[in-house]
Known about the structure:
By secondary structure, chain A is mainly α. Chain A contains four helices and no strands.
Amino acid sequence: MPxxxxxxxxxxxxxxxxxxxxxxxxxxGITIIENxxxxxxxxxxxxxxxxxxxxxxxxxxxxxxxxxxxxALTLTAIVIGLATTALMLAxxxxxxxxxxxxxxxxxxxxxx
Amino acid sequence: xxxxxxxxxxxxxLLGAFALPLWGKLRRELRDLWAIVVGVFTxxxxxxxxxKVLGGGEVWVYTLGAAxxxxxxxxxxxxxxxxxxxxALSAFMxxxxxxxxxxxxVYTLQFLREEEGKTLAMSLYLLLWAGILGLVYTGDLFNFxxxxxxxxxxxxxxxxxxxxxxxxxxxxxKTMVMYTLGxxxxxxxxxxxxGEYDALNIAYISSKVTGGxxxxxxxxxxxxxxxxxxxxxxxxxxxxxxxxxAPPSATILLVVNTQxxxxxxxxxxxxxxxxVLATPGVGWLIAAFGVLTIVVAALMALVxxxxxxxxxxxxxxxxxxxLLGLGVGAAxxxxxxxxxxxxxxxxxxxxxxxxxxxxxxxxxxxVVQRAAGTKELSRLGGLxxxxxxxxxxxxxxxxxxAGIPPLNGFASKILIYESSFHLSxxxxxxxxxxxxxxxxxxxxxxxxxxxxxxPSVLHVERTQWGTILAMGTLALVIVVFGLFPGFFVKHxxxxxxxxxxxxxxxxxxxxxxx
Lengths: 112, 514
């Protein structure tokens, strides 16, 4: 079930990228895909009835621990995603200052 | 020091990149000196890696976070640590990154002016360099994604940092959207593979991979993401913008960045899925993308009015030749046909030739723009009267780009023509025709930029010695590789070809043992 949600998010994001012209909405589309992928990564690490992989905090009766790698991957991916989103939004701000519009159809100074 | 060379080759430019603005705050001379020191140290450690791997014929595994760099796996052959794994192909890519990186750095030091944001450009340049070296050295899929994103962010920063102009940020935004989307596809594939095999180590996954439906989906996602980053034709729209708008000193490294994506592609196809690639379909797909890229980019170059964009489409079309070589190689991997090896040799040899040729042309575009104040072909002309040496270099680069003997472009393209003809004559015919078209295009560009009457209002600026030195080095590579291709193929290219063609078992054994 969580995988279906992830794929749905990715599909929504791709759809946004294809049909929207507004630059901010393109960034939103990318972010939605990113969240879908991150959700996919973190849900890979889910184990039923398992505890967090911190040895000293585990309750005495706990028999299973989750593997920490997917969570570490997701954290890294989130941080990288933050950097890319910030950079993209910065470019959008600069483009808006120069051209006074966010419509991707009107901006195309670079063509061909 | 020597035992840690692979990781130092990534750490030194990374540290250099972040420390460089601090030196810039103190004094500009210190900053330049720092850049030179970082460049020299990176050169030394990466050369150590290249000599040991290419000369010794071994696969160098370096494990991070272990007491001994050799201990990558726990009992039972399960890898738990992050590894750098340098085989001959990685070392070869490292050599390309070094050549381009050092030449670009020398050019940057003298060419860029302070008011063009020199500190920013140099800092991002070193970051991109570190990212490329990491991308080609890593033996871990997640790290592959991380370095993929480091190169993306650094490259887009480099393209668009001149926020006071209107076009660079636009090109950077376009590029960023494509790179990020490609990166996310790669990450999704990494997630799928992790979910299946509980590991991120390339060698380990490769030893377990079964070729089921999920594996095929992962392969498709990886191919898609990497082709986007490489700028193959359906996803090439960012490339001419980026090459055209980035500072000329950085473009040479951007070209190597796309080649790193091709490296990733070959690593995925030949190593990661090399054991289950039962049909030639994937190879055919890559070869088809390659031919499409060659033809479409050559046609697009024909109609360009801007010198930078014209050369940029030439660069995109060169990328198609590498894809064609790799694709033909992959298509014949299962049958073991000898021409597949020739195709790989051509494709891999073409990478270093392309870095030199296209790099030289982009550096010259920078010089032309500086001298004449414009890149528009209609307003350029007669520069040959004042920029004599530059005109000669441009002619040399153009001929090499079009693959005219005895220059290096011919040496690698002939191998690709020969071998793709065996797979399907149509591939070879299209590739040759596009090459001829490209010759016409670049000669027209040469004619309209350097020939013609001497322009009356020309504010000429002397080209500095560092710029000449950088361009001269690349010209030397073009001529020497063209005259003695046998020597370089034997010592530089063939180990890399063997690493792809027959080296998968060695690559796996280097990490997993036995």
